Structures are given as C-alpha cells and as structure tokens.
Amino acid sequence: MDLISLLSFNAVTVTVVVILLVLLVSRSLQWPANVPPGPVGYPVVGCMPMFRNGNLLEIFRKLRVQYGDVYSVKIGISLTVVISGVDALKEAFIKHADDFSDRSRASVTGNLFKHRGIGFSSGEYWKHTRTFALSTLRNFGFGRKTLESKVQEEITAYLDVIEEQKGSPYDMKEMTVMAISNIICSITFGNRLDYTNAKFKKITSLFAENFRLNSLGGAAQALPCLRHLPGDMFHLKKLIQNSKDIRDFVIEQIKEHRNSFDEENQRDFIDAFLSQQNKDGEEDTIFEDLNLAVSVINLFVAGTDTTATMIRWAIIYLIHNKDIQDKLRLEIEIVVGTSRLPSLADKSSMPYYEAFITEVFRMGNIAPLSVPHGALKDIHFRGMVIPKGSLIIPNLDSVMTDPDLFEDPDKFDPERFLGEDGQMNGKERNVMAFSLGRRICIGESLARMELFLFLTSLLQRFRFLPENPDKLPSTESILGLVRVSKDYRCRAVKLI
Ligand code: HEM
C-alpha cells in the first residue's frame, strides 16, 4: 500500500470511528430515565466488552437474578431488552402482542432484504405476507398426506446413504441438512435436488455459516455502519455476501418458474405467489418480486438448519442414553413393526416418542433467545419504557432451564413429561421451542412432522453407537442464531 492510499485508508477509519462515537453518545442521552434496569456498562461501548468471551446464556441468567424478568443491556447505540420467565414472556408477547410483534429496523440482514419477506418485515405488510405464506404452505402440504409421502421418499434416499457407510464412523451433518432442505425445496420450488448437486451443497452450507456469523457479528448488528470499516473483523461482509449468494440462487429459481408458469397447474409456493401477482391490480401490494424472493429465502433458511440441528441433538442424546434408545425402538416395533416406514397415523400411539422429542426440544434448546423482536415505537410495559429502536429478546432459555418448571433441568429425562398412565402430563406446554405469540414459528407443524418421520425411521433401521466406546459425542454447544452441537461422528449399525 503506498503512502497516499495508507493516509486515505486511515482517514476513512478515523472518520467512521468519530461519527460512531458522536452517534453513540447522543443516542444514549436520549433514553428515558425509566428504561428497564440493567448493568451500567462503559461509556460509548456500553456492555459490549461483557459479552466478548463469556457464555451469553450464562450471563443472561446471572443478569436475570440481579435485575429481574425484564432488564436492559446497552450495546453500542442500541438498547437491548431481555424478557425472561413464563409470566413476563406471556404478558409481553401474547397480552401486549400489538406492541411486541415487530422486528427491529437495525438488523443487517433485514436491511439487506429491505424488511420484506416473513421473517424481517413488520406491521400490516408482515401480517399479510405471513397469512399468505401460512395458507399457501397448508395448500401445498402442511399436515397433508401428499407431503408425508414426499418426506418418506426423502427419508428412503437419506437412509440409503447412511446404510452405505456400513456402520463405520460417519458425520451425518451434511446429509441431514440436505435431506431436510430438500423438503422445503419441494414445497417452494416443486422438486428435490440431488445430494451430489454441487450448487445445492454450497447453498446449504451457506445457511449454516450465516446462522453462525449472525451471532458472531451480533454486537456489530447493532452498529451496521461497522461494515464500512476496512477488513471484516465482525464478519458482516461475509454475512452479506453469503446472503447475496443465497438470494441469487432463489432468484434463478423464480425466473425459471416465471418462464414455465401455468395458472391451471400451480406446482408450488412460487407459482402460488406468481398467480396472485398476475391477479393483483392494487398498487399497495405485498405481491412484489422482492417479497417473493425474501419469503422463499426465509422458508428455505429457517426451515433447514433448525430441524437438521434438532436431529443431530436427538442422536447425541440417543447415544448417551442406551436405555432410552431401546425403549423408543420397542415402541416402534410394537406400533409400526419392521415391514413399512413409520407414518403420521402412528404418532398418537407413541407417547414415549412424544416425551423423548419434547425433552430434545428442551435440552437441545436450539433457539434459546428466539429471533430478536424490535420496538418500532416507545413501549410502556410493567411501569417501564422500552424506547423506540430497542431490540427485544424473548429469553426462551429462561423457561427451558427453569428448575421450578423442570426438576433437575440439566438431566436428560423424557419421563418428566409422562404421567402415571404413560401419556403426556401437560408439562410439555412450557417447552416453548417455537417461541410464542403472533410471531410464533410458522414451520412448527412441518418441523414436528419431519422430526417424527425422520427419527422413528432412523431408529427403526439403525442402532446408534459412539465413534468408539470411550468417545461419546460432546453435549456442549456452540451458540449462533441457532444453538448447535459440536461436530461429531457416530456409527449407525443396521438392524433390519
Ligand atoms: C425444530 C425446528 C424449528 C424451530 C425450533 C424453530 C424455531 C423458531 C423460532 C424460535 C422462531 C422465532 C419466533 C419469534 O420471532 O419469536 C421462528 C421463526 C420462523 N420460523 Fe421456525 N423453527 C423451526 C423450524 C422451521 C421450519 C421447518 C420452517 C419452514 C417452514 C420455519 C420457518 C420460520 C419462519 C418463516 C419464521 C419467521 C416467522 C415470523 O417472523 O413471523 N421454522 N422459528
């Protein structure tokens, strides 16, 4: 780098830093006196240093003990309000849903997608998009027999690849992500993609990376202008580039659909949207191109890594608990047998599976801080003010690990959900894995269906063992937007 470039590089850095400092100080002076209580933090950066190396969930647990169910944390120019415990969560996200159901306008990914789609939009635009998405997903299979047979078709291909490993140590991560992604592909694009398709492999790997980067750049998300700094210390540039690659892949699919569109033969979610677009004459409409692309990206991204991560947690707990694995297999043998794949009709006769999966939801705790909501106006709550522009975190972890709700919460124990009659005892209602209120996950029924069919089919065909008897997979987690397990290999030994 020559002297002139070096000087201009430094001048840009200094200017950005000065602008940031001015913004930070002036913004924090505007907060009202009765914002929710919380640590004072340092001038300008607020509590950012507190989160640098610690376990975020552990820090949030300690802050709750100190400041109560509703507290605030200052990070850069933004105030983050954390809501914990069943009562406060229900009061905010259900009773005061009109105030608490928006998304923040500050998120980098939200800005990139201009706050369109299902996951990043707010207000009326979000309500209409979500309603359209839900009804279309129902039409294209949620809870229907046709979708069930598509899932079973995918499972057959998936089991075959696992069987090819002949019980030798294998990391099932990539295969599981592609198999789950293929189901949402069938619904949105009308077809599945082959596991050997290089583009498909690349795109699905970007989902996982973005989930991870979203949290690494967490503090920087509160200061989106940091992406203009030279280099990519906060991984924001990588996050944005990955999102653009995913967007280009989806736009290509939409173009192909537009070229072959037939009103009389709608194949999938994209066709249903294009059909509305053709009909819709109003100017103020949700049926615009960008909304279609972002909605598809939301379904594709949110519908892949979440369910695949749950399957990986389930297998870890199966390997750690041989007795639980045996009980599940016995239930499958009695209800389904070995001559056919499990089907949804079997589910109501399998309470032990229901208890097991509920415990995986609780201990896997894959979205412990849900997806942040945002205050689009000043919100008055429990005598405090949550100022406009604050990030609001539904702290689901506070419920999943609450010893008053779940005795000995660190123990993996499906039986805690079963009554004396062997049926579910009602405690499952507090396992809020899909969040709560109006923004509750729209893929819940699909995820539950996938998990039932995948896990029971896996257990019907294989016994899961550790890589070697002295090397159980770790139950430690890595927290990104989703709380994932560490990488591990296991042996799937064929039974039938
Ligand atoms: C085990 C699997 C899953 C879990 C634990 C999960 C969990 C969540 C959570 C915690 C949220 C945030 C809710 C909030 O803002 O408070 C969410 C939102 C969302 N999920 Fe899921 N999810 C799963 C599977 C799926 C699937 C399969 C789909 C695809 C259809 C999906 C699509 C979405 C979408 C589009 C949103 C945004 C909803 C909105 O903003 O209105 N999810 N999910």
Task: Give the structure's gist in a few sentences.
The chain is α+β, with helices and mostly antiparallel strands. 50% of the residues lie in helices and 8% in strands. The protein has 18 helices and 10 strands.
Structure report:
- This protein has 496 residues and is α+β, with helices and mostly antiparallel strands.
- It has a single domain, classed as Cytochrome P450 (Cytochrome p450).
- The chain contains 18 helices and 10 strands.
- The protein has helices spanning 3-29, 56-67, 86-95, 97-100, 108-112, 123-139, 145-164, 173-189, 198-216, 218-221, 236-259, 269-279, 289-302, 305-320, 322-335, 351-364, 397-400, 444-461; strands spanning 70-75, 78-84, 373-374, 379-381, 384-386, 391-395, 462-466, 477-479, 483-485, 490-494.
- The strands form 4 sheets. The chain has a 4-stranded mixed beta sheet with strand order 1-2-6-3, sandwiched between helices.
- It is globular, with a radius of gyration of 24 Å.
- Protoporphyrin IX containing FE binds at residues 118-119, 130, 184, 298-299, 302-303, 306-307, 310, 366-367, 370-371, 394, 433-435, 439-443, 446-447.
**Which assembly state applies to the chains in this document?**
single chain
Name every ligand kind in the structure: protoporphyrin IX containing FE
Order of helices and strands: HHEEHHHHHHHHHHHHHHEEEEHHEEEE
Return the CATH topology. Cytochrome p450
Distance between the termini: 65 Å
- Percent strand: 5-15%
Number of DSSP helical runs:
18
Radius of gyration: 24 Å
Report the top-level CATH class.
Mainly Alpha
By CATH, the architecture is named: Orthogonal Bundle
Strand ordering within the main sheet: 1-2-6-3
The tally of structural domains comes to 1
What is the helical fraction, as a range of percent? 40-55%
Low-confidence stretches: none
Major β-sheet profile: 4 strands, mixed
